[in-house]
Amino acid sequence: MKKTIFLGFCSLAFCTLISAQEKNNNFKKIKELGGIEEYLYQPNGMNILLLQDNASPVATVQIVYRVGSKNEVIGNTGSTHLLEHLMFKGTASFNKKNGNTITDVLQNTGAQLNATTWYDRTNYFETLPSDKIGLALQIEADRMRNSLLLKEDKEAEMTVVRNEFERGENDPNSLLDKEIWASAYIAHPYHHSTIGWKSDIEKAPIEVLRNFYNTYYWPDNATLTIIGDFKKENVFALIETYFGKITKAPNPMPQPYTEEPQQYGPRKIVVKKPGELGVINKAYKIPGALHEDLPALNILGEIIGSGPSAILNKTFVDTRLGIYAYANATNFKEVGLFTIGVGFPTTSKHEDIDAKINEVVAKIQKEGVTQDEINRVVAEISTQTILSRDGSGVIASGLNEAIASGDWTDYVTGVDRLKKVTPADVLRVAQKYLVEDQSTTGYFIPKQSGESKAQDQADANHFMPENGPFYYRDSNHNHNEEPSGNLIAAHTAILNENKMEAESDLLIEKSASAFKREKIAGIDVVSVKTAAKDFVTVAASISAGNFANETKNAIIPSLTASMLSKGTTLNDKFKFSQKLQKLGVKLNVSASTTKINIGFKCLKKDLDEVVSLLAEELRNPLFDAKEFENLKQQYTGNTQQSLNDPGERGSIALSQAIYPKGNPNYDLSVETNLENIKNATLDEVKAFHKKYFGPASMHLVIVGDTEGANLNACLKKHFKNWTGGVAENLKFEEAVKANSKTEVITIPEKPSAELFIGQYTGLKRADADYIPFYIANYTLGAGFAGRLMQTVRDNDGLTYSISSGIGGNIQTGGYWFVNASFNPNLFQKGLDATMVQVDKWVKDGITAQELENKKSNLIGSFKVGMSTTAGMSRTILSFIERGLEPDYIQQYPKDIEKVTLQQVNNAVKKYIQLDKMIIIKAGSLDKDGNPLK
Hints:
Layout: H1 2-6, H2 9-16, H3 20-24, E1 27-33, E2 36-41, E3 46-52, E4 58-65, H4 79-86, H5 102-107, E5 112-117, E6 122-129, H6 133-145, H7 151-169, H8 172-184, H9 198-203, H10 206-216, E7 222-228, H11 232-243, E8 267-274, E9 278-287, H12 294-305, H13 311-317, E10 324-329, E11 335-344, H14 350-367, H15 371-388, H16 392-405, H17 410-419, H18 423-433, E12 439-447, E13 477-478, H19 497-504, E14 516-520, E15 523-529, E16 535-543, H20 556-563, H21 573-583, E17 588-591, E18 595-603, H22 607-619, H23 625-641, H24 646-658, H25 670-679, H26 682-692, E19 699-704, H27 711-718, E20 741-746, E21 753-760, H28 770-781, H29 787-793, E22 802-807, E23 815-822, H30 827-844, H31 848-865, H32 869-881, H33 888-897, H34 901-911, E24 918-923
Parallel strand pairs: 3-7, 8-12, 15-19, 20-24
Antiparallel strand pairs: 1-2, 2-3, 4-6, 4-7, 5-6, 5-13, 9-11, 9-12, 10-11, 14-15, 16-18, 16-19, 17-18, 21-23, 21-24, 22-23
Keywords: Signal
Signal peptide: 1-20
Protein name: Insulinase family protein
């Protein structure tokens, strides 16, 4: 009976309802641009954006509320974000009591769902099979005005959000960024971060939140976006059905009117906390996103801060003054900051870096930039704009930010605005806005572990990719995942390779056209044509054979892959990167001790040129000695950062407790990694490249608009006579299930501590028990519908993030684990609550209803994943790496469907022993696991 409540209506609505547009003219067309149609639903003032694409049976439904943290005042900061969480807690129709929570109902269709909060907006979205559009609209309409907002839910969710806040406080860049904005804007409500001040999170009464909800969450303050596979007349009918009963807001919605007063001199803030790097962020005030000067400021940020040719990289990274450098302009609706950031090692001083940044700014203000530099940036952004529109979910995300900026059409016209920028424009905005008296400079001065609070030390290291910092202000606060902005965590160890592979299995196009598989230039090539227009995605890999078990320096594969982008024998790194920039392409090559991963996305017309550059990079790297030393410094900085990372330290300790040193799943300690980086030589890198780079074990998958792309001809031409590589299999020392163990890793002054629970299972991806155990684990800890999230987070309010997974290299015996974050004062309570669920899972198994729900979830996700070329290419690659044929995508849903309840529950009891649990606690905890005082 419950299913008919929320599933039975969709086909009825599509079949019987008449187009509201034709019947009563409630839908007024406003404009159309770039294939996107804008309508006004006149009965209640809701804006509607429609982008129809019937190539795949997938759609994204998104509702954007024009309310964000800028609408908050002192005392209720963080209300928008806390409401975002509470609006998942339930409505009169969808709630836990009825057994049909919003997350359960949506995830059982295979939907990908989330919500994010930012300064100018809040959005809720779900990408799901297109025959479930009606379900998504029903849910969004229901929570628009019927969210329960119960006091008991608020009390539980408050501690969840507080833990999210604490996790952000763990990161030095996040902390520094928050302080800079609070100092730069003393009056404007952008002054406080979206997540709010801790005391407001803890103390805001439910009445305040309800009042905020009843003020802003109305249709005339919202834009409904539907992208993907639908018929317009059916969508109009569904909107009429579910939103037609909702009226306009009964009162005018108050808008912030506070303007930032004139700044009369430079401001400076200093943050001193444990860390392993020195950081300077220098921020200058700029206008809002739609201001005529923003395109020039965005281009300026790219020119001085992105890529090997960027002035900041030449000034700081190439000279080894800094580990990373970046520049960017925010694109908020009202005001913003142009930020220049540098992270640096012990050999550099804050004052010296600050002075160098000022020199860079002065040079730009005197000399400006060239037309060629602008052309490269515009070409790159133009192509990336096309390539990024791979799936309805990504398009919805882009529209979300354009809506927030004040004009959705900027999503379509933004590139045209960039194309009008001249060198004179860039020079003018540099001189106008990069003014010292309008700046706020932040210093992060790290204290190393064990120092007293009075001691200040700025000798630290931190690696950053060339394209940006560890933390961007533009990261969104999400409901049930990590922030979706540019968070970059360059971990040296892969915690969960098998889990990632299993999740990528959900990104498969069941109805994909026939696969082509053939050997070309010695490479195993699979080609799949999809409905993507004018672009292709390539995923490839090369086996590292038995390198992982040869007791060699484990950092060499990663260093080798990173050196490939540092120049070739034909083009130095500047010329090479500029060629890629003009094509708008990023060649991604990375390596672990077991394989080399390669990937890129490009326009179909550029495939030959991109393959040519890929071949040049793979076959003819320059291996310059100076670049190698620079790279080692960057790796050292990255690894040193891990010393103060509870998650990284905890995951390493778990792997070491489960596996012997001779096993590929054994992660080296931070100290060992630092020693390996120090001892690595360029000769070792060259030897690794010579032995392992070649076609012998290379697989390549191309997905997208492959017809006429002429990949075969490209590979034959550019990889002709390429030899090398290995075909040997990985050998390793087998692990055995270890005895129970508890270990504490003490890291002072971390507001959020990490818990790891795990044990060896020995399961390999090809084992018959793997899928049954995977379904069992999925029930326990995968996503918001997992038991752990629904209890330890949702009911108990003890954590922002908790999950369980299957780890380990796909060729070796794997392991099972749980990972969660807790405030140190709630750590033991969190551990106890987690173990209650684990005990119940092992002893009682899962229920028949849970099994059916998870099967529906996993199989439904196939439809969702089929709309992206990236997901399909990675998934097919993972199949052929395991020796399967590409058409296994047809069999995978059947393998899920045929699993029985007995197989699932037997697998849990077979592989998990409650008396063999390994528990790792990392953070501000003493040797007994109690909070540090």
